[in-house]
Design brief:
The chain contains 7 helices and no strands. By secondary structure, it is mostly helical. It folds into 2 domains: about 140 residues, Topoisomerase I, Chain A, domain 4; about 40 residues, no CATH class.
Length: about 190
């Protein structure tokens, strides 16, 4: 099965290029005073979204890995990626609101909003592709592990149950089970 991630990355890069083209086209139609207002409004951007993302990434990568149960790791990864998307979208919405309050021409504000929407739709597509590919990988890995464990159970379980039920001597169990099947019994 082919991965969807390269396709989603290509879509994201094309969306970024289209958004920049759209904003530059509307920026070229503005006067020098309006361009100065754009620079002034852009320089007063908030730093809190970047700080939130840095703290969230630090928590996700250094604090939680040992504490998250293994079946929930990909759920936490999905939650982190969606949080990343929502915080970034909030920062972009704040920028569009700041640009509209400065009194810039509506075509520029609209093109900035459309570029942000296009970018976040493509980013959401990338996040969904990552989650889908990871879940497909985990299900393939889990299915492969189940089939090997079932094969081990057929070879190891019947003699072990018989020997363990009749005589409880550890020496007899050690002689009967060697190698991988014994490792499977010990891990249970």
């Amino acid at each position: 099965m082919k991965s969807l991630i390269p396709f989603a990355v290509i879509v994201l890069l094309l969306a970024m290029a289209a958004g920049r083209w759209w904003v530059r086209r509307s920026l070229s139609l503005m006067t020098v005073e309006q361009k100065a207002r754009v620079m002034d409004a852009s320089s007063t951007g908030n730093i809190w979204p970047l700080a939130c993302l840095a703290v969230g990434f630090g928590i996700f990568s250094w604090v939680l890995p040992g504490r998250i149960p293994r079946p929930y790791v990909f759920g936490f990864l999905a939650a982190f990626l969606l949080t990343l998307l929502l915080v970034s979208a909030g920062a972009a919405a704040g920028k569009v609101i700041r640009l509209s309050r400065v009194g810039l021409p509506q075509p520029y504000v609209r093109s900035t909003a459309y570029a942000a929407i296009l970018f976040f739709v493509a980013l959401l597509l990338l996040i969904c592709a990552v989650i889908y590919d990871l879940s497909a990988y985990v299900s393939r890995r889990d299915h492969g592990a189940q089939s090997s464990n079932q094969a081990m159970q057929l070879t190891a379980s019947k003699p072990a149950i018989y020997a363990g039920g009749i005589c409880h001597r550890a020496r007899m169990l050690r002689r009967m089970h060697r190698g991988l099947a014994a490792a499977d019994l010990v891990s249970r």
